[in-house]
Design brief:
Layout: H1 12-22, H2 28-46, H3 49-73
Length: about 70
């Protein structure tokens, strides 16, 4: 199964809002722990190590690209 990078949600804003709302009233540490737990639960649901590795690589690239854009704006 290839990694899907297009939205599979009928209402993607609702999905985004649900994740944001789940962080409400959490400390930074709790928020980081929540994110880690959510990632592991969803990774287990996917159950495909190749897709997980592809997602990890994509997330790292996006993070690095975002950091580079911030540095260029400064």
């Amino acid at each position: 199964m290839p990694l899907s990078t297009t939205s599979n949600f009928l209402r993607p804003d609702d999905a985004f809002r649900a994740v944001v709302e789940a962080h409400r009233d959490l400390t930074e540490e709790q928020s980081a722990d929540f994110d880690a737990a959510l990632v592991l639960i969803l990774a287990n649901h996917i159950g495909d190590i190749d897709v997980l590795r592809e997602a990890i690589a994509l997330a790292k690239r996006r993070m690095i690209d975002g950091q580079q854009q911030q540095q260029q704006q400064q």
